[in-house]
Design goal:
It is built from 10 helices and 10 strands. By secondary structure, it is an alpha/beta fold. The protein binds S-adenosylmethionine.
Length: 261
């Protein structure tokens, strides 16, 4: 049933969504033209993609601790690294979009909720090498593989924080005096997603970008996305179906965009 409704939502999104030509906001038009639709290949993407290739052929079995939306079904089980790489990592098109969004944003700090095996963290760090990147992961053995990935990439300044987001996120936010970029990509449940959003709010500013993954994944996630968009502090929201972007630019009429990606 979930898949049927997801497919229906996808078709509806394709029918309703605009491209840059149907967009009248200069801010969003520029973002689409120069960042979101910049599909040219870039040499810098090779590093993360080569690491992904290695992970896809890594047959080691690890114990996976699931603290997310699937945890009610199966809390602990063994999985092959190659299967995790195939099923849970952000695919290249989206990871490369995140790279471009971060490069354009020029953040001083970034938080990723859900490291998994770390390929997206590599993209994020390469997009803003001087920014502090905190990447949070609840499964210790998955995080250990990500540590190996960061070492191979020579990205030893990425700060890995292991534990349930409920326990680790408040501490990470507490260390920073402002939040520039937060990518929420784990525990896709309505209440949890809204909780992470609320925790970020006291530290967001005019230049902050929050990104929520899988906003059509379930009824709960659709409700969470609707509530986030409607929040009075949010001035621009961009629904790309796979992810939702949230901006807090001041002095603007609230606008919500459905965009093809
Ligand atoms: C979809 S994966 C992240 C993918 C990664 N960001 C990427 O772009 O390739 C989600 C990750 O979040 C972790 N996770 C889910 N719920 C969590 C929670 N409540 N606390 C900590 N980690 C959690 C899972 O263990 C999983 O590795």
């Amino acid at each position: 049933m979930l898949h049927l409704s997801f497919a229906k939502d996808y078709v509806l999104h394709r029918l309703r969504a605009k491209t840059r030509h149907g967009t009248h906001s200069p801010f969003v038009y520029r973002l689409l033209d120069e960042v979101i639709y910049d599909f040219k290949s870039k040499k810098v993407y090779d590093q993360a993609e080569n690491l992904r290739k290695e992970l896809l052929s890594d047959k080691r079995l690890i114990n996976v601790t699931d603290l997310g939306a699937g945890s009610l079904l199966n809390k602990n089980r063994q999985k092959r690294v190659s299967d995790i790489a195939k099923n849970a990592l952000k695919r290249p098109k989206l990871a490369q979009l995140l790279y471009r969004l971060v490069k354009n944003l020029k953040p001083e700090n970034m938080i990723e909720l859900g490291t998994c095996l770390g390929t997206t963290s590599v993209y994020l760090k390469n997009a803003a090498p001087d920014a502090q990147l905190y990447t949070l992961e609840g499964c210790p053995e998955t995080a250990q593989i990500a540590t190996e990935v960061f070492q191979k990439a020579g990205l030893n300044t990425i700060k890995q924080v292991i534990g349930n987001f409920d326990d680790t996120l408040p501490g990470v936010i507490g260390k920073l005096n402002k939040l520039d970029f937060v990518f929420v990509d784990g525990n896709h449940q309505k209440e949890a997603t809204l909780r992470y959003f609320e925790w970020c709010l006291p530290k967001v500013h005019e230049g902050t970008l929050l990104i929520f993954d899988d906003i059509y994944w379930s009824e709960g996630m659709k409700e969470a996305w609707a509530a986030i968009k409607a929040h009075p502090q949010v001035t621009v929201s961009i629904d790309l179906f796979w992810i939702g972007l949230v901006y807090f630019r001041k002095g603007r009429v609230k606008e919500d965009f459905k965009i093809r990606f």
